[in-house]
User: What shape does this take?
Amino acid sequence: MKIDTKFLGQVVVTAEQLYSFEEGIPGFPEEKQFALIPFGKNTPFIILQSTKTAQISFVLAFSYTFKENYAFDLSKQDVEALNIEKQEDMLTYAIVTLKDTLPKSTINLLAPIVINTKTNQGRQIVLNENSQELLHYPLHPVKEGVK
Assistant: This one.
């Protein structure tokens, strides 16, 4: 399937790259289908691109790349909505807020994107914590070799 993207122009995505967000994403409830598109090689970033609207696109990163001890509990409602049977079927990303330079950019750990890789379902989970640190967490990798 060909889709227009905000960052990469027109790209071809496979069915395996498509994820259903039944409730959309907060602020974009009408956007129900997204594609996960690699941003490049050797980078912790990936693009979450609406398949319907080219301008609705988010840069994501693996949360654990930037906060090794990052953890949260999924509610029973979230587990059921995503049809999660095993933790191994789940990937967790966070939205990156890009600033004028990458070192000034941050990652939002208060509202992770949770993906069920087995069912190709996704959901943004808004955590019930009040932490400005997690909302604007610095983009400084904790693991060696990550740029």
In short: The helical segments are 63-66, 76-81, 132-135.
